[in-house]
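TL;DR need structure tokens for one chain.
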Amino acid sequence: MTTADHRVDAVRAAVTAAALGGRPARTVTLIGNGLDHDCYDVDGDLIVRVPRRPDPAAADREARLLDTVAGLAPVPVPRPVLRTDDGWLGYRRLAGTALSDLPEPVRDRHATTVGATLGTLLARLHTAPARTWVGLVEPDDQPLDRWRQEAAGYVATLAEVIPPARRAAIGAFLAETPPSGSYRLVFSHNDLGIEHVLVDPDTGAVTGVIDWSDAALVDPAADFGLIYRDLGPDALDAAMESYRAAGASSAGAGAGAGLRRRAEFHGRCRVFEDLAYGVSTGRDRYVGTSLTALAWLFPE
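>> reply
TL;DR here they are.
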């Protein structure tokens, strides 16, 4: 039995003591292990994140960040309803299904609807005054050439996985000079992949965006790149159009050709990280989604 398994009783006791459901917690299930946290489902209603090392200050900062984001976001985000002295945080489970869990044809059908909503979300976040995020997040910015170098490293380890038909286009991309131009850092989710976007499977309406643990001050193109990577060019078009319509370009975040070029660059670089993760962990869903994306990221 792992340490994470041993915590089941402790999680049950913490939730029961908080009387969040008006009754003792019944079922507690370990649903995820990360490098820093273990995650538990409690009675299908609550998600509790337990840090591997107690860090109350980090938990307090995350709770304040989520409350701040909730005041800006046009879609639901997790709001802490449980906090412990050891830095545990509990959130009500949001409605909807992770977009990554839907069959590919369903994702394709909803791609532009989701893209438009995420573009509006990014506009709200990117145009918030810089003082909003003081003490909550730090910059996370690296030169575009470093992203390209990291992508090349992943490609070198994935030679047997990458389809031969895509190799020439990938090689040409890695040989190109990254996009030029300046940008100002903005607050963003910084990991806006489809595994973190919840939707109504029937309508495609976004019902929540989860896991804000990587949120930071970043290149405005970073999360647009993940929309492009996971949902394709039409979704990116829809996202950038709603971003412009929400006034992001006039506020200085930028929504022109430079932003799009960097978004495409980020999407192409970061697909290899997901592909390598899927291969190394045996998570076929990541492998399949990444290989599918290569068709629009690196057309023949």
